[in-house]
Amino acid sequence: MQVLSTKAEFREYLENVRALGRTVGLVPTMGALHEGHLSLLRAAGADCDVVALTIFVNPLQFGAGEDLSAYPRPLDRDLELAEEAGADVVFTPTTDEMYPEPTLSTVHIEQLTAGMEGASRPTHFDGVTTVVAKLFNIAGPSRAYFGEKDFQQLAVVRRMAADLDQPITVIGCPIVRESDGLAMSSRNIYLSSAEREAATVINRALRAGAAMISAGEGDPAVIEEHMASIIEAEPLAELDYAVVVDPDLLITPAALISGTNVRLLMVAKVGSPRLLDNLGVDVP
Ligand code: PAF
User: Fold this and answer.
1) Last-in-domain residue among 139, 173, 207
2) How many domains is the chain partitioned into structurally?
3) Contact 157, 124 (CB under 8 A)
4) Which of 3, 75, 105, 145 has the greatest number of beta carbons closer than 10 A?
5) Which of 126, 145, 173 is the endpoint of a domain?
6) The domain spanning residue 122 has which CATH number?
7) Same structural domain, 245 and 277
8) By alpha-carbon position, which residue is closest to atom 9 of ligand 1?
């Protein structure tokens, strides 16, 4: 496995790969790899000839007072895990390499970024789309793998690639969970053992929402209220939002339509971290 730290080296490596007629699977991450990231690397390896992992903690997507300086950066362990999971090349640029000058250009996606994470973290998505657009430009034509845990991010990146004709196929991969249902996240390490136990309420609330839909409830407001009440009953959890949305438009429908699919999205703070989770549900 090659570890490269400059944009020029990474671009050249992947250009050479494609010149040999081989395909590239790109897995952008901020490191602190867990089983969720490794599942993306394995999916890329199953589909593509060469797996390219990027590890970069992107300052642009952190707001003031967020955990940028505390964000875990266990690089040696990440490289070991990445190699085991089949990465062929890892791009680990410094902030100066990615942003040699203060960036005057920002990629902004309308509408899809307005609610949910965009409402709670107003500068977040511009930071994500700007760095992902840069990574797409550096890596060149590829298939790019993102986890469904950040469901809104996936929808935003997919739309960016389509709107801007980026030569990238964006692939969403299923959430990987701990055995008690907690969605894997690099931020789970911030949880104390009591908070770790309390955090399972998020998945329980989502499953309760899904059960209501399967039982015939068609009013999103009733489902959202029920999910919220489950979180509110857990003293260590503080609800940010619990919503039922159309999976592509990310808007709450007036009523659920039989035969469609909706996504339940939830964020709650448990201790210091905000934990994200979501679930797709078929409307009977
Ligand atoms: O999901 C993440 O880890 C980040 O938001 C991403 C896509 C790597 C951009 O920095």
Assistant:
1) 173
2) 2
3) no
4) 145
5) 173
6) 3.40.50.620
7) yes
8) 128
How far, in whole angstroms, is CA 179 from its chain's centroid? 20
pLDDT of residue 50: 98
User: Which residue ranges in the chain fall short of pLDDT 70?
Assistant: none
Place of tokens 């902004």: 108
Ligand 1 centre to CA of 221 (Å) is 31
Angle between helices 124-139 and 7-19 (to 10 degrees): 50
Atom 8 of ligand 1, residue of closest alpha carbon: 29
Give tens-digit pLDDT for 273-283.
999 999 999 99
Which structural domain, as residue segments, surrounds residue 231?
Answer: 186-282
Three-state SS for 52?
strand
3-state class percentages of the chain: helix first, strand second, coil last, to nearest 5: 40, 20, 40
Same domain, 58 and 158: yes
Whether 217 is covered by a domain: the verdict is yes
pLDDT tens by residue, 157-194: 999 999 999 999 999 999 999 999 999 999 999 999 99
Cβ of 150 closer than 6 Å to ligand 1, yes or no, is yes
Ligand 1 atom closest to the CA of 157, numbered from 1:
7
Please state, in angstroms and rounded to a whole number, the distance separating the CA atoms of residues 262 and 278.
10
Same domain, 63 and 142: yes
pTM value?
0.97
